[in-house]
């Protein structure tokens, strides 16, 4: 009976070492798997950061482009305002004389008639 216990204890000692090594090996491979998954996650995050960086760069270019368009539009509006004030000054001079009033009335009538025909045909 002692020989069986010795055999079992020797066998248990033999397999305990293998099992411990197996546990260590599995934990080591688990650690490797975790490292690999972390590396993949980091690469994925780097790709996302690069995409976001390019996207913000594109947004910045788009904003700059829109700002240039708005600046040009503002300058064009200022120019139009100057032309409109000049035209208003000319109309004031036209209305100062009586013969010019008749001419202005005639021009306004033609303009009203033109606009009426334009809206009716549209």
UniProtKB/TrEMBL annotation:
Q: Does the keyword Endoplasmic reticulum apply?
A: yes
Give the matching PROSITE patterns: T_SNARE
- Membrane topology type: Single-pass type IV membrane protein
User: Tell me, what is an example of a GO biological process annotation in this record?
Assistant: protein transport
Q: Does the keyword Transport apply?
A: yes
Q: What is its main location?
A: endoplasmic reticulum
CDD domains referenced in this protein's UniProt entry, alphabetically = SNARE_Bet1 (cd15853)
Q: Which terms are listed as keywords in the entry?
A: Coiled coil, Endoplasmic reticulum, Golgi apparatus, Membrane, Protein transport, Transmembrane, Transmembrane helix, Transport
Gene Ontology, cellular component aspect? endoplasmic reticulum membrane; Golgi membrane
Q: Which residues cross the membrane?
A: 103-121
Cite the T-SNARE coiled-coil homology domain residue spans from the record: 32-94
Extract the InterPro entries matched here: BET1_SNARE, T_SNARE_dom
Q: Where does the record place it?
A: Endoplasmic reticulum membrane; Golgi apparatus membrane
Family (UniProt): Belongs to the BET1 family.
What functional role does this protein have?
A: Required for vesicular transport from the ER to the Golgi complex. Functions as a SNARE associated with ER-derived vesicles.
Q: What is this protein called?
A: Bet1-like SNARE 1-1
Name its species: Cocos nucifera (Coconut palm)
List the top taxonomic levels of the source: Eukaryota, Viridiplantae, Streptophyta, Embryophyta, Tracheophyta
């Amino acid at each position: 009976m002692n020989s069986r216990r010795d055999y079992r204890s020797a066998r248990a000692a033999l397999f305990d070492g293998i099992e411990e090594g197996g546990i260590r090996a599995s934990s080591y491979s688990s650690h490797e798997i975790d490292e690999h998954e972390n590396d993949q996650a980091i690469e994925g995050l780097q790709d996302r950061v690069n995409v976001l960086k390019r996207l913000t760069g594109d947004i910045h270019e788009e904003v700059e482009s829109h700002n240039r368009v708005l600046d040009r539009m503002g300058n064009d509006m200022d120019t139009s305002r100057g032309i409109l004030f000049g035209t208003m000054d000319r109309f004031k001079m036209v209305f100062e004389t009586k013969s010019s009033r008749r001419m202005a009335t005639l021009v306004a009538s033609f303009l009203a008639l033109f606009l009426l025909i334009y809206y009716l045909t549209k």
